[in-house]
Amino acid sequence: MQGLTRPGPMGETAARPAPARRAGARPQPARAPRREPGPSRLAYRLNRMWLTPLYRRLLRVGLPAFLICMIGGLYLADDTRRANLSGGLTAMVEKIQSREAFMVHRMEIEGASPAVDKGLRAMLPVTLPASSFDIDLPKLRMQIQMLDAVEHVDLRIQPGGILSAVVTERTPVVLWRHARGIELLDKTGHRVASVTSRDLRRDLPVIAGEGAGARAPEALALIDAAGPILPRLRGLERMGERRWDVVLDRGQRIMLPTENPLPALEAALAMEKADGLLSRDVVAVDLRDPARPVLRMGLTAQNTVRKALGMNPLGPDGVEIEPEEGARVGAATPAGTSKGKATTAKAPAKGKATSKAKASGGKSGKAAAAPAPKGRG
């Protein structure tokens, strides 16, 4: 067959005969062996790595970022370059912030008293005119609302470079007297300011005692309910941080219970309206037990009762006053027997006999002694 060679002896080169061709045909060049269509092992592994999301992100994002950071780090490694870059950025920012559109020239405050107005202007962190970027409005608002007299504040930068502050102040409604001084409280019991004397706000009611400030709303409800006795009301006192005492003029007190003091006060006002209880000589109306009210009478009323019972009166210190000897005899005379009457009747005769004895000398002794046995008999 054509294309086959006979094996020759070893070491001997066998010559392959030329293929037969047609007459007049041109010889074809020898072709390289055909390559396999599948990829190589390296190409296959690289293709699989590219299909992995992690490697694809590293090549697309991580490698460029690393190159940029490396170049930036090499550039900023020099101190002079860093200083120049920082100075340029700072100058550019200051140039933008210092534009007229961002400048604040004045501050307008509405609804504030002179003291609060002065305090707000002192709390401004910059001196006007200044850039609005230098004023932290949320921080400044929090600082202003920490003032006791300020309930709410609205801060805005208006066109024209105006910093507007609309202030809502707390309204004092009661005075709280305690061991540390006198304070003004609003309707929620929040501190408004301090005063040095009660005379500065005589139009406000007074509450006293430790813990009274935290119960200011309850005290205001009691004061509103004490309408008929409001002209006589001196204030409310918190007793033991548990309950209230309503203090009136003339040293009178209405002692209210720990729970539900308002109905107890209304009951006391009903007794005052029906019987004029508080207009009498009563020191205290004890309603700590609403089911069993107790009255504490004054000294005059107690002595009147004791006199009606035939008892000795009490002194201002509460100690019983012992009557003198003559007062005892005089007190016993109305209830005495005929013996007492005889003794009283003979007393003038004795006096007459004594005067006669002075006039007659020695006979006076007998004359004075004679009536005595008759009186005893």
From TrEMBL:
Q: Which UniProt keywords apply?
A: Cell cycle, Cell division, Cell inner membrane, Cell membrane, Membrane, Transmembrane, Transmembrane helix
Q: Name one GO biological process term.
A: cell septum assembly
Q: Which domain of life is it from?
A: Bacteria
Kindly state one GO CC term assigned in the UniProt record.
plasma membrane
Keyword Cell cycle attributed: yes
Task: Please give the start and end residues of each transmembrane region.
Answer: 58-77
Does Membrane appear among the keywords? yes
Q: How does it sit in the membrane?
A: Single-pass type II membrane protein
- The Cell division protein FtsQ/DivIB C-terminal domain is annotated at 175-288
Q: Which Pfam families match?
A: FtsQ_DivIB_C
Q: Where in the cell is it found?
A: Cell inner membrane
Q: Which InterPro entries match?
A: Cell_div_FtsQ/DivIB_C, FtsQ
| Stretches with biased composition (Low complexity) | 14-31, 330-377
Region span, Disordered: 1-39, 310-377
Name the protein family: Belongs to the FtsQ/DivIB family. FtsQ subfamily.
The job of this chain, per UniProt, is described as: Essential cell division protein.
What protein name is recorded for this chain? Answer: Cell division protein FtsQ
Its source organism is Paracoccus sanguinis
The gene designation is ftsQ
